[in-house]
Amino acid sequence: MVFWDIHDAGIIIDYSIPVAIPSFNREVKLVEQSLATLSFYGWNMKKVFIFLDETHTRVNGTSEKTAYRKHLRASGYGEVTLLPGGACLMTQYHRIFSFFSGQKVIILSDTVPGIVWRRHQTHLTTEPLPSALLYRVVSVMFCVIAEKMWNIWSLGPCKAARNLQPGHISQKCGLLDGNFFGIDLKFKDAPTLCISNFTTDVELTLRMWTRDGGFARMLGVSALHQYRQTGGHCANNKAVHKRMVATDKAIRRLGNLYPGLLTFVPLKRISEAGMKYRFLPKGAAPLLLAGTYTKRGRPCENGCRAKSVADRVRKHRKLKKVIVAMKMQTKYTYASLTLGCC
């Protein structure tokens, strides 16, 4: 059913929501990707907080905080706040949840080059989310979880257009996207993550669903992200096979802790960046957010994008020329046959 309209003038847009970004050894990509994305959507840089491992010293003797501060100021992002985080992603999350206790916060990956959405329900195409809509999406999703008495929401975890569902706000148990999610810590603290740094998003998903009884995911909008990039907390484990074994072990443990929500699938075919699990079907039917999906537009021959009016006019003009040529050819053939008979 249609739940809301994203263009509704009655939606109260909250411009005070802060953004927390856990980061490690990626100040260049942070500026080029995530901060550039926030700038495109007009986010207030005074509300952006970068959590760092301040105890880390690089090979050249420069501290993590000094390297970040120097590059951020040189790139025009001096208003961004740097805060002490931790030496691993779980610790980073704990520091973020503790620092923003009692308020709402958006948590964003440090390597998000853009945010896309799929509007058309039949055509497999994505396009950048308009700059005026991110604040509206965030405000609507916080309203959704407030009405449902939940405490967390996320954008869609899938990146491919065929896996995005236009306008759908999912109420089913599925992976929360760690690249862009919002959490309301006004009334409840976030759960403690303790299983593995390789499965933080899966563990957070399971613990939040078990505690709150649900959450919301905007499946038509997705934060772009390439997994296992250079830098970051998990890059220290250079042995891919060792990391995959540790990930499988963590997934098995989570499956044992939450047998009604997650199952380990040992034969699942995945890439080196994937995980062998499947969420079990739980939750209600999706809600629809009007203004974020459409059925308009005729498909082109390849069926991947809507055909414009100009495209249709050109096609019909070309078709008319073909019909005229066929008529002339038929007339010429008939005349030749008539003369031949005579």
Can you give me a brief rundown of this structure?
With 342 residues, this protein is of the alpha/beta class.
Summary tags:
Spore Coat Polysaccharide Biosynthesis Protein SpsA, Chain A; ten-stranded mixed sheet; 342 residues; alpha/beta; 7 helices; 2 domains; three-stranded antiparallel sheet
How would you explain this protein's 3D organization?
The protein is of the alpha/beta class. The chain folds into 2 domains: 2-227 and 241-290, Alpha-Beta Complex (Spore Coat Polysaccharide Biosynthesis Protein SpsA, Chain A), CATH 3.90.550.10; 315-341. The protein is 34% helix and 19% strand. The chain contains 7 helices and 17 strands. The chain has helices at 27-40, 64-74, 89-99, 134-148, 200-212, 240-257, 309-341, and strands at 2-5, 19-22, 48-52, 81-84, 104-108, 115-117, 127-128, 152-155, 168-172, 180-184, 216-218, 221-223, 262-264, 277-279, 283-290, 298-299, 306-307. The chain has a 10-stranded mixed sheet with strand order 1-15-9-11-8-10-5-2-3-4, sandwiched between helices. Strands 7-6-12 form a 3-stranded antiparallel sheet, with no helix packed on it. Strands 13-14 form a two-stranded antiparallel sheet. The protein is globular.
